[in-house]
Design a protein that fits this description.
By secondary structure, the protein is an alpha/beta fold. It has eight helices and 30 strands. It folds into two domains: 314 residues, 4-Layer Sandwich (Metallo-beta-lactamase, Chain A); 116 residues, Sandwich (Immunoglobulin-like). An eight-stranded mixed beta sheet has the order 12-11-8-3-2-1-20-21. Helix 3 links the parallel strand 11 and strand 12.
């Protein structure tokens, strides 16, 4: 397990025994990497394209554990479990690239055909299933069913769907209704992987079956179907919005009341035709029912890029955009300075009490800021609240009303936890793009 890469290294030590979670930025598709504390490597769906494959493979090489293979007598990287939530192409695209670089040892599959079965990606997937059966045995092809529990070390994977007996209305997309939905539990915290599951299965099967089990409540929700309204309402026929009064028999809004997410993550590209995802009405519902009901804890890969999370053995956890890492493509440089409102200097990684008022500024070298009117400066915060403040997992930029003072930033410390401040400086005249991270611990 690699915890030395930023931003994970800002939070983790080896004795934390963390479960690591990565939601990769793969456009209009889905791909999640989960590394369990015992280094078991688990990938949920895949969307590798010619455009993103170099970045995705580089990222996976950095984050998939290097382990000793007794069969080959060498260190290698491989994938213990690949979960195909359902067989739509945007959930298994580029699987040949993935398997050629990181050998897949087993597949979990819902056994539901996708929207198209003729593509090269689909045909490769079916052939890969046959090869895994030949190489590793039939037990390595798994069809998880609702209520099944799989244990990996101290973590548990609870299958919430598909159901063996599920009557599906003809107009409903079968592969979405019967896709694999998993709750991963570790240290009394949960990650909910929903695939493209729709309102129908949540209303008629998942919620009725699990509402009293405690399995639905999840700190981290991976939103269904790239933020589509299909999680809330039927999208076929005349249904043109999310309106429970107009379409009471084809709309269900209660699932999020049971999930109660602190953070909702959405894998998506820019909202534009033909998919128009994420859906604006769905986003409003997610924002209203996530965390504190603001827009800082609903994060999309389109806006924030790849997102990485951790759950420590002690139950502390966090979600951070991967771009919260130090980067410099130039000999020029800058330093983030911090003072309290009482003009006391604050060092990087200092520990302060709640209520402190902090003021940040930039100290530059080599004429980085010249000319200042051509300079782009971005300030961004990532909160990882702990204990009574764990609900505070906001990620947000400097507000528009503050943009007139681009070289300065102010914030009050209000929550216990570790807080990252990201400052990115771009000087196009000098071809400079530098990012610095400043850390404050709050108690």
């Amino acid at each position: 397990m690699n915890i030395d890469v930023e931003p994970l290294s800002f939070y983790l030590e080896k004795n934390d025994e963390p479960l690591l979670f990565h939601l990769l930025s793969v456009g209009q598709g889905l791909m999640s990497l989960i590394v369990f504390p015992n280094n078991t490597t688990f990938i949920y769906d895949c969307n590798i394209t010619e455009d993103n494959k170099d970045n995705i493979l580089e990222y996976l090489r950095e984050n998939i554990p290097l382990r000793w293979n007794n069969d080959t007598n060498q260190y290698e990287q491989w994938i213990d479990i690949f979960v195909c939530s359902h067989r739509d192409i945007d959930h298994l695209r580029g699987l040949d690239i993935l398997n050629n670089n990181f050998l897949i040892h087993s597949i979990w599959d819902s056994e539901q055909c996708g929207a198209s079965t003729s593509s090269n990606d689909y045909q490769y997937y079916m052939e890969l299933r046959r090869k895994i059966k030949e190489k590793f045995g039939e037990d390595n092809l798994v069809t998880p069913k609702a209520t099944e529990i799989f244990k990996i070390g101290n973590a548990e994977i609870h299958c919430l769907s598909p159901f063996e007996n599920c009557d599906i209305e003809e107009e409903t997309k079968k592969q979405h209704t019967k896709c694999i939905v998993l709750s991963i539990k570790y240290a009394n915290k949960s990650i909910l992987l929903t695939g493209d599951s729709d309102w129908y299965i949540w209303k008629n099967k998942i919620v009725p079956t699990f509402k009293n089990s405690g399995l639905l409540s999840s700190e981290i929700l991976i939103a269904s179907h790239h933020g589509s309204r299909s999680f809330f309402t039927e999208t076929s026929g005349d249904n043109d919005g999310i309106d429970i009064e107009k379409y009471p028999d084809a709309t269900y809004l209660d699932a999020l009341d049971y999930i109660q997410p602190i953070v909702t993550l959405i894998s998506c590209s820019e909202c534009k035709p033909p998919h128009n995802l994420p859906n604006s009405e769905a986003i409003k519902i997610y924002k209203n029912k996530t965390g504190l009901g603001n827009d800082m804890q609903v994060l999309t890969t389109h806006e924030k890029g790849t997102l990485v999370g951790f759950i420590k053995l002690n139950g502390n956890w966090g979600i951070i955009p991967c771009r919260f890492s130090n980067q410099n493509n130039s000999s020029l440089n800058f330093k983030i300075l911090c003072k309290t409102d009482k003009h006391q200097n604050v060092e990087h990684k200092s520990t302060l009490n709640k209520g402190e008022k902090l003021k940040y500024s930039l100290k530059t070298e080599g004429g980085l800021l010249d000319p200042v009117n051509k300079l782009e400066v971005y300030w961004e915060v990532s909160n990882c609240g702990i204990n009574e403040d764990e609900i505070h997992q906001e990620v947000y930029h400097k507000s528009k009303k503050e943009l007139d003072e681009k070289l300065y930033f102010s914030r009050d410390l209000q929550y216990s936890g570790r807080h990252l401040l990201r400052c990115r400086v771009i000087n196009k005249n000098k071809n400079v793009d530098i990012t610095k991270i400043f850390i404050i611990n709050c108690i």
